[in-house]
Design a protein that fits this description.
By secondary structure, the chain is α+β, with helices and mostly antiparallel strands. The protein contains 21 helices and 15 strands.
Length: 547
């Protein structure tokens, strides 16, 4: 794929404003070790011209044989809740519509990645639909190794027509490996995992920030005010683990840097919005900006934003303390803020009728916001599936049919959830998640067109911020990049260690000497560790993929 084409596709996706993908708490995995080979599957799809948006004629699809479709997902199997009853009701609908039923195959979180990949590598037809991800579940290595079925346009148009029609051509391009589609993306579900600071908006207004916190300088003003005005409140009771997120947020807020996911924990390499495919590391090039960051963090330390033992603060429970008014800020991602800004049971902060929770997101000053990859959650079909066409038909229903969607995502109405008078979702009286909830871990095709809003959430505030995000965001541009780091892994490991050692000091103002000196020392250590060599190798791989 040519670099110019990808740039065009990115520009188009910026205009379309399709929502970001879902999230997971799983860690970034190691490379896959699957060894399966690709198998062929014949379909009955009618041939259409390449690029046509018309769906093929599905009237001749033979569904006379009842089949069982197995859906594989990560997470432990449920015990004693309503999952079985939900599936019983769902399977009645699936049987009526496509003469199929669905079973769930769970991959427990213990050693999940190796078990997941080995299950796919067996190629024994155990699973049909496979929840996957490009950034934490080895989607591209598994596609490369033949574990996933190539999904032709005709096959998708025939057996998953609503999914085909709902995904833009630009997004289908991002689901291709070596020119072929292997994934169906979760590209119409708003879930933001970009980081920033949740804070007391009412207190920020008291501090003279009429529009709330809009910059790092505003944060300094806010923290000073809290420290002086509310002496019993800790501005931010950090546990000292947020150093990489802090400096990454600073760089995002003071440049147009777009980081590549998955190289190291600090996301220390990437391009810029103006030049996406020229790789650099701002940690060695943006010296003046890093010095300013170090100076501000020293100021925060002197103000008393965090406890003096911040780097050894193992007892912090900052998020829970924010909910009850003991701290004034929480640094995490937008999804966390959507919870904190909502007036939920036990959130005694809102006993004060004036209390509001605002959010300052990293990149706000420069309008530098990158949406989660649309293949952070995606569905694939196992290359060993005995019924790939029917698997696609089942997926198309779960993703797009309102009745199937509500059952699979929320459970049985009246037991797992109920609707309020204004059509929102709440838990019934006496609800117990252990017995009344469901567990299908469907993170691979959620659809905002069919979502039922949670009645406990502050949707006025949430939708206002999401609208702001949608106006400026770009899609993650590196979703198809699978770095080969075998020859540079030792250098990346050393760089990671250096970054951790220095940034713990810099990001919490605990360094000795001047900001200029500590940044110079840090950058010199990075260069000795081979950061320029890593940058050059990543550029070489980018050139192979994008030029």
């Amino acid at each position: 794929m040519k670099k110019k084409l990808l740039a065009t596709l990115l520009s188009a996706s910026m205009v379309m404003g399709i929502a970001a993908c879902g999230s997971s708490t799983a860690e970034t995995p190691a490379p896959a070790d699957t060894t399966a080979t690709q198998t062929e599957t014949k379909t009955e799809a009618t041939t259409t011209d390449a690029g046509s948006t018309e769906t093929a004629d599905a009237s001749a699809i033979d569904t006379s044989e009842h089949v069982v479709i197995t859906y594989m997902t990560t997470g432990g199997a449920p015990e004693g809740n309503q999952t079985d009853e939900m599936l019983r009701q769902l399977n009645e609908i699936l049987t009526e519509k496509v003469n199929a039923e669905l079973e769930v195959y769970y991959i427990d979180w213990t050693d999940y990645l190796s078990v997941y990949n080995l299950t796919l590598a067996r190629m024994d037809g155990t699973v049909d639909l496979v929840g996957t991800a490009s950034d934490w579940l080895d989607a591209w290595p598994n596609a490369k190794n033949g574990a996933f079925l190539e999904l032709s346009e005709d096959m998708l148009k025939t057996y998953a027509p609503k999914t085909w029609a709902s995904v833009s051509p630009e997004h289908w391009e991002l689901c291709k490996y070596d020119g072929n589609i292997y994934l169906m993306p979760e590209d119409n579900y708003a879930q933001w995992t970009n980081h920033g600071f949740a804070y007391r908006l009412d207190w920020a207004k008291e501090a003279g920030l009429a529009d709330g916190v809009k910059s790092w300088e505003d944060l300094t003003t806010y923290f000073k005010y809290v420290k002086e005005t509310y002496p019993d409140v800790i501005p931010w009771d950090s546990d000292g683990t947020q150093y990489a997120t802090m400096v990454g947020g600073w760089i995002t807020s003071h440049s147009n840097y777009v980081s590549i996911d998955g190289i190291n924990s600090g996301a220390m390499w990437g391009g810029t919005k103006d030049d996406l495919y020229t790789v650099y590391s701002p940690y060695v090039t943006d010296t003046d900006s890093l010095v300013e960051f170090a100076k501000m963090m020293k100021e925060w330390d002197e103000i008393g934003v965090w406890k003096t033992d911040v780097l050894n603060n193992t007892t912090s429970d900052n998020r829970e303390d924010f909910k009850i008014g003991r701290v004034a800020a929480e640094q995490h991602h937008t999804q966390t803020w959507t919870d904190l800004c909502s007036h939920k049971d036990g959130y005694t902060i809102y006993d004060d009728p004036n209390a509001e929770t605002g959010f300052f997101y990293f990149g706000e000053e420069t309008k530098n916001l990158v949406a989660l990859s649309i293949t952070h959650g995606a569905m694939a079909v196992s290359a060993a599936s005995k019924n790939p066409e029917r698997a696609l038909m089942v997926y198309d229903l779960i993703r797009n049919d309102p009745e199937c969607y509500k059952l699979f995502n929320y459970g049985v109405e009246g037991v797992s959830y109920e609707l309020t008078d204004d059509g929102m979702r709440k838990t019934p009286e006496g609800y117990n998640s252990a017995t009344d909830g469901i567990s299908v871990n469907y993170w691979w095709g959620r659809n905002d067109d069919l979502e039922i809003k949670d009645a406990t959430m502050n949707w006025d505030a949430i939708e206002k911020l999401y609208k702001e995000y949608d106006a400026i965001k770009i899609d993650y541009p590196y979703g198809q990049f699978v770095p080969n780091v075998d020859d540079i892994q030792s250098k990346i490991d050393n760089i990671n260690d250096i970054h951790t050692t220095y940034m713990k000091q810099i990001a919490f103002g605990k360094y000795q000497g001047s900001a200029e000196d500590i940044v110079a020392e840090y950058q010199e250590a990075l260069k000795k560790a081979g950061i320029d060599d890593v940058t050059a190798e990543l550029q070489r791989q980018f050139d192979e993929l994008y030029k």
